[in-house]
Amino acid sequence: MKDYIEERVLELADYIIETGATVRATAKKFRVSKSTVHKDITERLLEINPGLAAQVKTVLDNNKAERHIRGGLATKEKYHPKKD
Q1: Would the pLDDT of 84 be above 90?
Q2: How many whole angstroms separate alpha carbon 53 and alpha carbon 45?
Q3: Cα 20 from chain centroid (whole Å)
Q4: Is the pTM of this model over 0.85?
């Protein structure tokens, strides 16, 4: 694996763990595709650092469990925007 890819994978993992960010938010922050983030985190990180991969998996599993709540809040905001 090329050095720059390995460096990116570790940066993505650190960012997700520190901020609890979703795959989509991480992709936006690092200006890569969601597919790239997903592949880096689920496949490449496992080869580089299995312990770190387990920590990231915990965060992503939590994000997945909360996904329906965030979707509901986004819909509520769309149809009932807050008035200033």
Answers
A1: no
A2: 6
A3: 7
A4: no
Return phi, psi of residue 83, to 5°.
-100, 130
Q: Which of 32, 9, 19, 28 is nearest to 60 (CA)?
A: 19
Q: Token digits for 27? A: 């992709």
Q: Which of 50, 69, 56 is nearest to 22 (CA)?
A: 56
**What pLDDT is stored for residue 66 in this prediction?**
74
What's the mean pLDDT when you consider all of the chain?
89
DSSP the chain: --HHHHHHHHHHHHHHHHH---HHHHHHHHT--HHHHHHIIIIIHHHH-HHHHHHHHHHHHHHHHHHHHHHHHHHHHHHSPPP-
Q: How far from 55 is each of 30, 76, 80, CA to CA, in Å? A: 20, 32, 36
